[in-house]
């Protein structure tokens, strides 16, 4: 069975280094758990690294982490009206943009004798979630009128749908909105959450972070990179996750198929380049197990192609034998697919 090896110490160290880096200018971090499905051992490593909030888009995942006994403030990134009752019961802070949802949250918080904390998300151009800036005051007014809701902050999310980069202009706009709300309503916003792993370049280049005092980081902690150019962040580990699969065939074969060519297993008509006779290795990992395009070859191993159950590798530079194991790094899509796959065993290693 293919497996994913997860080096917990590297995730802990990444979280620690990012807490230190962003903490230098007073920015706290939410560790985002969705790409690893809230796997408790991994989230525990984030918490050991100093992350105080754990954020996920799925309520079920937050419930799983709570049940595992993890201790943090749990933040729900995506709030659905129909889940309002469950949200107030298992989440400390939820991100919101709709008054109807906020009313339901307040209604159920009252029934369960709770105060539910919320962050209002503002649209700053990426066109995913967010209230338009010109509508913010009105929504804040309506939110403050709800009896069992506490407005703890505002936030924004960029570089997700529209690919809009966080920069000094949109971050300054978020700061100004926070300032305006605080002044207009005579309140303090504890949290001004400026974004995600895409905010690294902005942070490194800005002279002034304004009122931004929080970021929500998944990929930076897990894979050690920022997400505008997918560059490694200096000092972080980038291969805490490795997929390992077994070689089940290794032979010299021609590189061109023979016979009349029709559709392949996925309905495409394949095209092949003639490279002569090559050493080819087949590993027991395929499209039913994993998103093949999410695998990052650690070496000069080239993926020639894949089917439901197999990946065919160019074994030219390596003497791969049946029974050998082959390692791959992962990108974000690959990590998501590997963690979600029932066919990939999760194995924790402790590293140095
Ligand atoms: C997924 C998500 C994040 C984390 O994004 P990364 O790129 O993994 O850092 C942050 N905020 C929201 C609202 C999200 O949905």
Short description:
The chain is built from 10 helices and 16 strands.
Profile the largest sheet.
8 strands, mixed
Cα shape:
elongated
Strand % is 15-25%
CATH topology title of the largest domain = TIM Barrel
Helix-and-strand structural type: alpha/beta
Small-molecule binders? pyridoxal-5'-phosphate
Sequence-ordered SSE layout with sheet pairings:
Blueprint: E1 3-7, H1 8-23, E2 28-32, H2 40-48, E3 53-56, H3 59-67, E4 73-76, H4 84-90, E5 93-96, H5 99-111, E6 116-121, H6 136-144, E7 149-155, H7 168-185, E8 191-193, H8 200-205, E9 214-217, H9 219-223, E10 241-254, E11 277-283, E12 295-297, E13 302-306, E14 311-314, E15 325-330, H10 332-340, E16 345-349
Parallel strand pairs: 1-16, 2-3, 2-9, 3-4, 4-5, 5-6, 6-7, 7-8
Antiparallel strand pairs: 1-10, 10-11, 10-15, 11-14, 12-15, 13-14
Helix pairs in contact: 1-2, 4-5, 6-7
Bound molecules: pyridoxal-5'-phosphate (PLP).
Overview features:
alpha/beta; TIM Barrel; eight-stranded mixed β-sheet; eight-stranded parallel β-sheet; 10 helices; elongated
Describe this structure in words.
This protein has 352 residues and is of the alpha/beta class. The chain folds into two domains: 7-223, TIM Barrel, CATH 3.20.20; 241-349, no CATH class. Helices cover 29% and strands 24% of the residues. It has ten helices and 16 strands. The strands form two sheets. Strands 1, 10, 11, 12, 13, 14, 15 and 16 form an eight-stranded mixed sheet that branches. Strands 8-7-6-5-4-3-2-9 form an eight-stranded parallel sheet. The two termini are 26 Å apart. The relative contact order is 0.14. Pyridoxal-5'-phosphate (PLP) binds next to strand 9 and helix 9. Pyridoxal-5'-phosphate binds at residues 32, 34, 57, 77, 157, 196-197, 216-220, 227.
């Amino acid at each position: 069975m293919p497996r994913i090896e997860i080096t917990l110490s590297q995730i802990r160290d990444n979280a620690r280094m990012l807490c230190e880096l962003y903490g230098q200018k007073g920015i706290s971090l939410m560790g985002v758990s969705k790409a690893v499905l809230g796997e408790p051992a991994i989230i525990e490593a984030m918490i050991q690294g100093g992350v105080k909030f754990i954020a996920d888009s799925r309520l079920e995942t937050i419930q799983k982490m709570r049940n595992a006994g993890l201790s943090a403030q749990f933040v729900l990134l995506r709030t659905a009206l129909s889940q309002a009752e469950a949200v107030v019961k298992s989440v400390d802070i939820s991100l919101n943009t709709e008054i109807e949802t906020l009313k339901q949250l307040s209604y159920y918080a009252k029934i369960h004798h709770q105060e539910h904390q919320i962050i209002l998300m503002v649209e700053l151009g990426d066109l995913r979630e967010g209230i338009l800036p010109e509508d913010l005051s009105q929504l804040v007014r309506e939110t403050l009128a709800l009896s069992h809701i506490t407005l703890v902050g505002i936030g924004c999310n960029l570089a997700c749908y529209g690919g809009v980069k966080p920069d000094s202009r949109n971050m300054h706009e978020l700061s100004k909105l926070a300032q305006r709300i605080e002044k207009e309503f005579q309140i303090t916003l504890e949290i001004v959450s400026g974004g995600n792993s895409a905010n690294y370049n902005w942070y490194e280049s800005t002279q002034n972070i304004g009122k931004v005092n929080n970021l929500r980081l998944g990929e930076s902690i897990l894979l050690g990179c920022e997400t505008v150019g997918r560059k490694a962040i200096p000092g972080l580990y980038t291969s805490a996750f490795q997929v390992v699969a077994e070689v089940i065939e290794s032979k010299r074969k021609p590189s061109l198929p023979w016979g009349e060519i029709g559709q392949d297993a996925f309905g495409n008509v394949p095209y092949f380049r003639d490279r002569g006779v090559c050493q080819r290795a087949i590993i027991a990992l395929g499209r039913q197990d994993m998103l093949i395009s999410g695998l990052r070859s650690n070496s000069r191993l080239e993926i020639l192609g894949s089917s439901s159950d197999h990946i065919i590798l160019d074994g030219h530079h390596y003497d791969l034998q049946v029974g050998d194991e082959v390692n791959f790094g992962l990108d974000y899509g690959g990590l998501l697919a590997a963690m979600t796959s029932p066919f990939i065993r999760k194995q924790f290693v402790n590293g140095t």
